[in-house]
Design goal:
Elements lengths: L5 H6 L4 H10 L5 E5 L4 H12 L3 E5 L14 E3 L8 H11 L4 E4 L6 H6 L1 H22 L3 E7 L10 E2 L10 H20 L2 E7 L1 E3 L14 H11 L4 E3 L11 E2 L1 E3 H14 L7 E6 L5 E2 H12 L6 E3 L8 E4 L2 H7 L7 H13 L1
Parallel strand pairs: 1-2, 1-4, 2-3, 4-5, 5-7, 6-15, 7-12, 8-11, 9-14, 10-15
Antiparallel strand pairs: 10-13
Helix pairs in contact: 3-9, 4-6, 6-7, 8-10, 10-12
Bound molecules: UDP-4-deoxy-4-formamido-beta-L-arabinopyranose.
Length: 349
């Protein structure tokens, strides 16, 4: 990973024709900076913003992001947890006249967070602190923060709403809750206007080239098992659910990306200085439901292997999505079949 420096940031900037293009391209005159904008979810947000004519600047350390995903968006390669991050971000805000920030860059592997809690703190909380410091110094006061359903921990309700008392059970979820609290403190201290989006289980793809390339979650893992002709593993079938396997709220990445654009637009209005929204469908699907859907879409019988439970898996984690529908007018347009079909089609190309 390149260490950040001013030259590196400048080397990514383009000649003045760039400014001309962006001047023409930014129909709304807004410049949105996306941290993690070259990632699986981030690149979907980047593309939707570009498609609606907004200028996008991507900050990504490319440790997991892929440059080719962001098209002609400006890229500033920096590790947000580094000591140079604040000055580089301030320079980027100024150069590109950034008006709002979407903060997606984070480490997000639950298991890895258990093994490396200090690194997750450095990366996720340290990165958030540097970003907020740069925004305060630069007078950039609009932020959409990528949070997670992992902040809830193991809720004892079937559908969890945003007022639930969050008790994360792993360092990943804790870093996301800490991030929310840092943003809310900034809102109270210096007028940041902020929205935290608690993602449920994101899957699918809006475009084949933006597919999730890391088999770190159930849907890509089962597709990978299918490709390798091996049986996928089901972690526990003795949960108190209809078929004994864990139930989750799977939301299409395109729907999630649309929720980010709705959040950016919401920050233009003078409502509360900060708020938290679940982003899900409100519909639960079990592990076996997902495997059955992949079997059906692919036309291949998949026989999973049942293994013991994973530590820390809640039996059921589904979103109450009343608030985002009421305030943003947003609701998911895609269901589990659409999610699975989008991956199958992308893989079959
Ligand atoms: C889903 C279900 C597993 C793999 C993650 C992370 C985080 C967050 C939400 C954004 C669980 C089961 C999995 C396998 C299985 N997203 N499973 N066999 O743990 O619900 O949460 O998504 O912040 O990324 O917290 O997602 O996809 O790992 O698991 O049986 O090979 O599938 O036990 O019940 P999870 P997951």
């Amino acid at each position: 990973m390149l260490l950040p420096n001013a030259e590196n940031a400048k080397s990514n900037s383009k000649p003045c024709v760039e400014a001309c293009f962006y001047g023409f391209g930014s129909l709304k005159g807004m410049t949105v900076l996306l941290t993690g904008g070259a990632g699986y979810i981030g690149s979907h947000v980047t593309r939707l913003l570009q498609n609606r004519g907004e200028k996008v600047v991507v900050v990504d350390d490319l440790s997991e992001g892929i440059r080719s995903r962001i098209g002609d968006a400006e890229l500033v390669q920096v590790d947000l947890s580094s000591k140079e991050a604040v000055s580089l971000l301030c320079e980027t805000f100024k150069t590109h006249k950034v008006t709002s920030v979407v903060h997606l860059a984070a480490r997000k592997k639950v298991g890895e967070s258990v093994e490396r809690p200090e690194w997750y703190e450095e990366q996720n909380v340290g990165g958030m602190k540097n970003l907020l410091a740069a925004m305060k110094l630069s007078g950039v006061n609009r932020l959409v923060f990528s949070s997670s359903a992992a902040t809830y921990g193991v809720p004892d309700v079937d559908q969890v709403d945003e007022d639930f008392d969050c008790k994360p059970i792993n360092p990943y979820g804790q870093t996301k809750l800490d991030g929310e609290h840092l943003a809310q403190a900034a809102a109270k201290d210096w007028g940041l206007r902020e929205v935290s989006l608690r993602y449920f289980n994101v899957a699918g793809t809006g475009w084949p080239e933006l597919m999730d390339t890391q088999a770190a979650n159930l849907v890509p893992i089962v597709f990978q098992s299918l490709a390798k002709n091996v049986s996928p593993r089901v972690f526990g079938n003795d949960f108190p659910t209809e078929d004994g396997t864990c139930v989750r709220d799977y939301v299409h990445v395109l729907d999630l990306a649309e929720a980010h654009l709705a959040a950016i637009d919401y920050l233009d209005r003078d409502e509360r200085p900060y708020d938290v929204f679940n982003v899900g469908t409100g519909v639960g699907s079990s592990v076996l439901d997902v495997i059955r859907e992949i079997s059906s879409v692919s036309g291949t019988e998949i026989v999973p292997v049942i293994e013991p439970r994973r530590p820390g898996d809640p039996a059921s984690l589904n979103a109450n999505v009343n608030r985002i529908k009421k305030v943003f007018g947003w609701s998911a347009k895609h269901d589990l079949h659409d999610i699975i079909s989008s991956v199958w089609k992308a893989q079959s190309l």
